[in-house]
Sequence to fold (212 residues):
Amino acid sequence: MTKLGIIPAAGKGKRFGGLYKELLPCSADETLLSRAVDTLEMIPVDTTLVISSHYKINAHCAALNNRNVKYAIQRSYERDAWDAIVESFDVAGEWNYYIMPDTWIMSGIIKEPAHDFTLGLFNTWKPERFGVLDDGEIVDKSTTFSGERQAWGILIWSRRVVDFWRGLDGNIETHTQAFNMAMREFGYNVFEIPVYKDIASFEDYKELLKHV
Fold:
């Protein structure tokens, strides 16, 4: 059974003034990006694919020197994160684990998949920042929610889902649309993420440093 880790790290970091926030340190010897790789290796995955860009690839290679990672260059940004996911199709595993590079997740909580599509969910009081699970569908960054909600922080999908997406790629415009299509086709399973820190601002980063 082959397992691929996927980290989409080609973003332009506009909210951090162009800074590569996935390379921010979260301890004396790790960055957010290297911790994401460590989190996937604990599963363990066979290898991790870092989706990079032409202008970030050298920095990513230097930061992950001697790690068991492969790289792909995101060729298009018209569909944002979906264009990054498409880059993983040619090296897809039987199971594929998708986590973000600018987050901090409690170690050792990613479950073995029991379903073709699985969501790791965390509780948030800021649902407008995330993809919220609502009535069996993901609603992305909506301002209509209030109170505490559950949002996805980790996704796991099978090769069957990859094959399904390949056949529909020309009709997919966003990653959220693709996820919902897979959930309708295959159903889904969930597990809980006890601690999830998203580094969307310098305030978030300062809070993370207090936590770790």
Summary: The mean pLDDT is 93. DSSP finds six helices and eleven strands in the chain. The radius of gyration is 16 Å. The first strand starts at residue 3 and ends at 8.
